[in-house]
């Protein structure tokens, strides 16, 4: 299934999106806005069995096209590998994961904001998701002013953020418990940006558990965000 929203900024707390089931061909056409649909689309791969973590094996031959180097996964136990596809402009809400993970940008670009765990108390976190949603990624000054009026403690912590834009082929290590949010961007290459493939962002997340801490993770938590 895919998240579908009329708004660019997804918010887990307010659930400003719906889940829709559709063929992958239809999803890609909509995510690229080839059919004039102005809504925002977001897909994350899931295992065929709901109680199992995602692997790229569920996507058939695509599994053969991606692997992290062995040298950087030593000492870890693999938890899941998730393919993500998003319409350009879609913003994912501020949250944290309980596993370390690598975020790998395959197509398009991805803006990523990281905030250390020491600041979690400033962001009104419920479960593992912030009540700010993705609103802090907004570029409209008036919208940000309203946000900081609503969440005054969050503003100073947000100013101390780490921010990066991943290009195609880049990978970013996101430590466990670090708050992060993302924005899908079109390809920075002018020709690619005009193509249908350049109008969405494709990435792969690899979630990893430290072998010494594996017993601390809830085995029923397929998304690695439950303490």
TrEMBL record:
<dbReference type="GO" id="GO:0031591">
    <property type="term" value="P:wybutosine biosynthetic process"/>
</dbReference>
<feature type="domain" description="JmjC">
    <location>
        <begin position="36"/>
        <end position="225"/>
    </location>
</feature>
<dbReference type="Pfam" id="PF13621">
    <property type="entry name" value="Cupin_8"/>
</dbReference>
<protein>
    <recommendedName>
        <fullName>JmjC domain-containing protein</fullName>
    </recommendedName>
</protein>
<dbReference type="GO" id="GO:0000049">
    <property type="term" value="F:tRNA binding"/>
</dbReference>
<dbReference type="InterPro" id="IPR041667">
    <property type="entry name" value="Cupin_8"/>
</dbReference>
<dbReference type="InterPro" id="IPR003347">
    <property type="entry name" value="JmjC_dom"/>
</dbReference>
